[in-house]
Task: structure prediction
Amino acid sequence: MNSSAVFQTELAGNLTGLANKRSLLLRLIRAAQPITRTEIASRLEIDKSTVTDNVKPLIDAGILREDTLDSGGHGRKPRVLSFAGDRDYFIGVNLGVRRSQVGITTLTGEISDELDFETPKDVNAALGMVKDRIENIIAANPGNVLKTIGVSVPGMTDTDRSALIYAPNLDWRSVRVSDALQIDGVPIVVENDSTAAAMYEARMKIRHSSEGLMTDFILVRSGTGIGVGLVIGSEVYRGSGLTRGIAGEFGHMTIVAGGKQCVCGNRGCWERYASAAAAASLYLGDRPIRRGETLPRFVEIVAKAENGENRSRRTLEMIGDYLGIGIANVIMGIGIPRVVISGRLVYGWQFIEGPLREAIDRSIVGKTNGWSVEAGSPAGAALGGALEVAVESYLASV
Result:
């Protein structure tokens, strides 16, 4: 029996009365709302009575509401479930290498009050700006209840999901993020940005699928660096024991022996050849940057490629080739054949996809059937991922 089948059997047998299983039901409602009890039972492959046993106390508590859906026809109108927490909200903070975002959402899924700013190099300045923004949001929402703050960071987190261990591209080490942002006892959850992006993509797939929660995929997020998130049965895997919070740092695996120097101290790391940031050095080649010259941004290289410049197209093709080499390694190492690409690299997908698939075809993975690579969100998973961290943490506690 595969991992998804085991997970499904466990869900059907243990959902009633267990908070961690109830959170799965709430995740489905949030992703697909408004949704009927019959559809929930079908997608989770459980009895409708089990759904009723779990949603009734949540309706009584005002967390969920059930409304009659006006379908415009005759006969009995279906009743649908959705979240009722209009006064509850969540704050997401995406601390990016170049730019950061802060915004809010509710359980209905809308994102608002988004602020985008350049990330200060000094960690205290960055966290100070974030805390000021959080305080402004709270002041602008009197009478509403802030439930949780989710923070996505470009590096490894500790086992408690409260601190950043190391962000190589920012050179931030041992940062107590939760302590720095703490406000009035509101729970704060710190998550690696690739894991957060995987959580976001998992919800998007649930929303647009007629199937249940059973989704297995590898999320490869490429921007300034490369990170990997792993989703099994729609649950994000974060590692275990001492590796919890470190899992997914494939961006720093070596794919070119003795290759380019990486900020982590190694040489030939995957992200030095296949990230959006790597495109600039590949575009320039081996020559040093000239006085007064600025490195081209990834979107500028994509624009030049779209206008027919061969040099830009070749650059993106090299990115695709290196990306495919690394993805084949990740698939072989993890054993999950479905891959979703997220981050700025998606903007150049039309030039990257072909060489990427050719690289995978050359590997042992290409000799098997069933592997797939698709483009996900280029930007939405940044703040969206941070908000997903906040909401998921809350749903797990309901």
Notes: Residues 1-20 have pLDDT under 50 and may be disordered.
